Amino acid sequence: MSIPEAARAAFTEAYGEEAAGLWAAPGRVNLIGEHTDYNDGFVLPFALPQRTVAAAGPAPDGKWSVCSTLAPDPVVFGVTRPGEVTGWGAYVAGVVWALTEAGFEVPPARIALASDVPLGSGLSSSAALESAVLTALIDLGGLDVPLERRPAIAQRAENDYVGAPTGILDQSASIRCQEGHALFLDCRSYAIEQIPFDLAGQGLAILVINSNAPHQHVDGEYGARRKSCEAAASALGVPALRDVSVAELAGALEKLGDDVLRRRARHIVTENQRVLDTVALLHEGRVREIGPLLTASHDSMRDDFEITVDQVDTAVQAALTAGAHGARMTGGGFGGCVLALIDADRAESTAAAVADAYAQKGFTAPTSWVATAGPGAARI
Asked: In the beta sheet, which residues pair with residue 91?
């Protein structure tokens, strides 16, 4: 059964009638630009074919109800405030709350969810859920919510209702990406540019490797990195680390007395530059040449930002040894996925090399697939 069929069937099973429609939103891979989003910097994600589908329809009782193929008993709630709905249902309640806080009259609705975005893998399953639900509620209510406003509403649901201090990257990718393109996003101005991302035309592919070392954003590590970045920016007298250029980096690091702050700042400043350099190469059609930038990004996340784990480091090294042009962890860190830029005919051998490296270390076997740039949230 396909994901849309599963969502439709779950709706009928839970509510005894057909859904009014289906809405889908994708997970994402961040090609480069990690932890730069909440530093007002630059990111370059693309949407995955894997997606969360919301089957939805009006609710006659004036409340909101949501179930999923993983949790068939509906979570039912009325108008709530942060903290009143917990668990996975908080992501849906958060969207209702954030839309209401933004001044929109949210239609009561019944929703059933199905998804093939891997959970806890750094591919933004939470943003896919939020974006699918948000798109469904906007359409059901005929709400006039401009596309450019939607990521911030979904982000607020995750930040202020769920309590995960994520930046704008994930929701922007899930809502605003276009098929066959990477999304170049300025996280300060929210300006975007769709960057053509034609891998097949150059005989290349992106292999995504799920390390199967799950991560969680609501834990303390993600928040600690964000606080360190804010502390470094404050010490340097700038609004955000985005305002420090690579040319200014040496002088800025001298001003930071704390070694941890120095390393956190160095990652953000150099990562922003790597995003800009990657975009420039893609504009020129020099896709293969972004490989060293991807690997340098991983090294920075490992050494300066300290957000990798042994499984992802092993996957990156094994992919590079197998001939990948570049490889890096993608996502918030402490587990999740690795992406590798490879020759299109090397997917199977690269995945096998990573699996062998995992077996030698006794890790849970990884899972791998070739990712293509898919579309953003929409009714299907």
From this structure: none
